[in-house]
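Treating backbone geometry as a discrete language has practical consequences that deserve illustration. The amino acid sequence and the backbone structure tokens for this protein are reproduced below.
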Amino acid sequence: MDIRKALGLPATPGPIFKPIYDGETLFKEACNRLLKQEYPRAFQNLLDAAYLEYPPAYAWLQIIYSKGYGIHSRDDKEAKNFADKLEKSKEWLEEEVKKDNPNAFFGLSHLHSIKNELAAAVACSDKAVKIFPHNIFLILQKADLLSNMDECVDEAEKLYRDILKNTPNFVFAHRSLARFLLRKRGKEAYPEVKLHNDAVIASGCRDSSVLYNYGIVLSEEGDNQAAAVKWAEALEIEPNSVHVLNGQAGLLNSLGRCTEAMVNYKKAIALDSNFIWAAAGYAEVLEMYYGELTAEAKAVYENVIEKGEAINPKLEWEYMVLGQAYLAIGKNKNAFECFSKVLEKEGELAKLYAYIGLGKLYIAENDFVEASKYINKALTIDSKNNTDIFIAQAKIFKNAKEFVKAENNLQIVRKKFPDNVEVNLLLGEIFLAVPCYEEAKRFIEKGLLKAPQNKKLLEIKAQLQVHEDMPKFSTHAKINM
């Protein structure tokens, strides 16, 4: 018996109810809620839209899972999952772009971006903004893409500022502009970087990347205690942030807390074996702790080089870390090429460290005249706060036997980092050369408290032991003789 016929129902069954929302509607609702800073509900809307297989939602979820943004904790597995879903939806995205679907433009441009197809991503984004000149998500996406192109940084900055002029409470634009200014505009922009980061924090958005970048600014300004507080707050939000662990480890190394720095670096490497910045930092701490390029440190640097050279395209910081790694293993020609690449890029902060890197390169080659040229260029960017500059300059003064100037530089660093191993080693070497053995011994012993296996410290300690009658001169009195 045909039950449908007996009940008077049509032969072909239809839906019992029509869904209130479809994927496109949910996606639009999510974007509206992101603007209103209703992050939990926006995130749920995106998950629902993804469940209904609406591809643009895959793009936003990939962004959220890879960057966090204070919306959800980072999850590399889920980020890859949604990147794969977006890739499988490429045909749909391309067809919808032909229909001038703004959400499809967003998804397709992001797909090109995560595949490192920057030219295609920009072309797609540029077309989208021309069709939808008031869609701030598309404008922000374009600005973020252009910020990675040296010839387009001014255009990117204008787009960021235009967005905030028209939508002053748009948290994503504050976050992006702060990051842009930190990377590209140098110390003069630091006050504005803090203002934009404050705007994000005031919105209630708990974003570890914002706190991390805030910490960088504070550290570059010389307030390492405040930087440490920001990074600690960031780790409370995201304990497994490789960027924050890396920044915190660098500070610990400067403070002479080598073993703690190693723990942080190793944790970051375990979380992301491709995060070359943490690997390079770990190798640097090994050098500091043991006073030489150990076999382990050399192997780590070589691994950094292998992975760094595979990155394409490279931005200024990839070239920077490659230059440091090449320099550490004695491949100075390669290091010079990498540091020079950094100088071709836009970005004051990266240029500062490239000049310092070139200064260190020529110090390693005992060409102190050329080293001075690059350290002086670094001083034109930051003459007050960067301790690497003071240390490099102290080495130049020490070579010229200008011990007073060398000591003055190192004492500036000691005010911030009294237990820094390299600083105490250099002061020990200076007072040994004067000679003032009592002072030399004091600094060498301070260094050994933090790095008891440092070969250079131990060698100077052995030299000092042959001097039984140590002169009782004060630091400055003896150095000025």
Remarks:
- Confidence is low (pLDDT under 50) at residues 1-19, 473-478.
- Residues 231 and 248 are 7 Å apart (CA to CA).
- The longest helix spans residues 348-364.
- The chain is about 75% helix and 0% strand.
